[in-house]
Design brief:
With about 140 residues, this protein is mainly alpha-helical. The chain has 6 helices and 2 strands; from the N terminus they run αααββααα. The chain has a single domain, classed as Arc Repressor Mutant, subunit A. Strands 1-2 form a two-stranded antiparallel sheet.
């Protein structure tokens, strides 16, 4: 599976919003700064995510973006499909007499099904929980 910078940036920005999930709208420039994403690029990404129903936005001085659903309800597969289009890479082979047809059906098609199932079961909440767990372990105290 290949994920472009558009997909990676989109996941980072959505995880950023998930960590701050609540009633407040988060300014796009704050997300871009925290996640080191070019603002103009993030505007394009958030346009697609808003159109796809994953974000809501408010314009103006107190405006910004927020998740349209709870982080547990937003799946990585949905984000990547909105930003990447196809997530899997298998080619369709129609010549059933070619051994490559059998390879595609037994190997590639099943691998794609596993990947799609996996991405469909990972939510933004899972990412946030992992992030908090890893960062809690990295806190060191000194006296």
């Amino acid at each position: 599976m290949k994920v472009s910078s558009r997909g990676r940036y989109g996941l980072k920005a959505m995880a950023d919003l998930a960590m701050r999930f609540g009633p407040d709208y988060i300014p796009l420039k704050d997300i871009a700064t925290r996640q080191n994403i070019p603002l103009k690029y993030l505007e394009q990404i958030f346009g697609a995510l808003t159109k796809g129903g994953l974000l809501t936005s408010v314009k103006g001085a107190q405006g910004g973006y927020q998740l349209a659903k709870r982080p547990a309800e937003i799946k990585v597969l949905h984000i990547l499909r909105l930003l990447e289009g196809r997530v899997t890479e298998s080619k369709t082979i129609n010549d059933v007499t070619d051994i490559e047809y059998s390879i595609s059906q037994v190997v590639y098609k099943k691998a794609d099904e596993c990947l799609l199932s996996l991405l469909e079961n990972i939510s933004l909440e899972d990412i946030v929980i992992h992030y908090k767990k890893v960062n809690a372990q990295n806190i060191s105290f000194s006296i």
